[in-house]
């Protein structure tokens, strides 16, 4: 697996934020988000913008420990005016990207994960925004598409996160084990975009490969990414499942990090 360039992730934070802003512009911000039922559309936007500003504070200050929300400047927008929310999203993304670019990918900073660097946060915020833009698109029934290299990297990163969760003893992720079973993801519109996830007694591993598996999921890469991130239903008609559907459901129910 090869990561995208640091500046590519930075550009995607800006691009995906602009895409999110376009989706929610003029929409009912009080609408419930089907893929995040505890949130309204405004809650979703505030979550994304707050995450950007939190990461900005971590990277800007070269934090060596977790930064509490209350120490993050303008962590939430002032008031409920949609125009204020839009400007707050734009400003937060711009400040975060400026800090990430100034720091460079290799700058050590605090992170909750296996990689404590500014580069980790650039990638994480790019994909955080990619996935939540999908949540917004679902809410307002808007079209949604992601560039192939970004969609593939979103799947790669999610596999890394779930593996990390398993190593940390997450109560659901630890159940992703059981030798002799495997899951194959096959993007039908992007050459080489295939993943083989193999379950073992101690957990799971994955690699890019085209091999027969216990269950296979086939479809366009964007749809594959959305299903894998639980942003689109398996029965949406956008992907095809071959083999033991129960194993796919087993994975989707437990591939979490909380």
TrEMBL record:
Annotated Mycothiol-dependent maleylpyruvate isomerase metal-binding domain ranges read 11-137
Q: Which GO terms describe its molecular function?
A: isomerase activity
According to UniProt, the name of this protein is Maleylpyruvate isomerase family mycothiol-dependent enzyme
Pfam families documented for this protein: MDMPI_C, MDMPI_N
Keyword Isomerase found = yes
Q: Which PANTHER family match?
A: CONSERVED PROTEIN (PTHR40758:SF1)
Asked if the record carries the keyword Isomerase, the reply is: yes
Give the UniProt keywords, A-Z.
Isomerase
């Amino acid at each position: 697996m090869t990561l995208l360039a640091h500046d590519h992730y930075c550009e995607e934070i800006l691009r995906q934020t602009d895409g999110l802003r376009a989706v929610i512009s003029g929409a009912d911000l009080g609408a419930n988000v089907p893929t995040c039922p505890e949130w309204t559309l405004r809650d979703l936007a505030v979550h994304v913008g707050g995450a950007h500003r939190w990461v900005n504070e971590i990277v800007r200050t070269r934090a060596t420990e977790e930064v509490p929300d209350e120490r993050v400047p303008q962590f939430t927008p002032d008031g409920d005016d949609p125009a204020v929310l839009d400007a707050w999203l734009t400003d937060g993304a711009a400040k975060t990207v400026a800090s990430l670019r100034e720091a460079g990918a290799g700058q050590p900073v605090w992170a909750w994960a296996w990689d404590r660097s500014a580069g980790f946060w650039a990638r994480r915020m790019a994909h955080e925004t990619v996935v939540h833009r999908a949540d917004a698109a679902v809410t307002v029934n808007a079209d949604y598409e992601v560039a192939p290299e970004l969609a593939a990297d979103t799947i790669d990163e999610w596999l890394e996160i779930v593996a990390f969760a398993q190593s940390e003893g997450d109560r659901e992720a630890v159940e992703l084990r059981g030798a002799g079973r495997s899951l194959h993801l096959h993007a039908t519109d992007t050459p080489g975009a295939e993943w083989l996830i193999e379950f073992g007694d101690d957990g799971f591993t994955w690699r890019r490969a085209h091999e027969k598996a216990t269950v296979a999921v086939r479809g366009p890469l964007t749809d594959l990414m959305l299903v894998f991130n639980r942003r689109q239903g398996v029965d949406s008609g956008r992907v095809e499942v071959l083999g033991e559907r129960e194993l796919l459901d087993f994975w989707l129910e437990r591939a979490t990090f909380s």
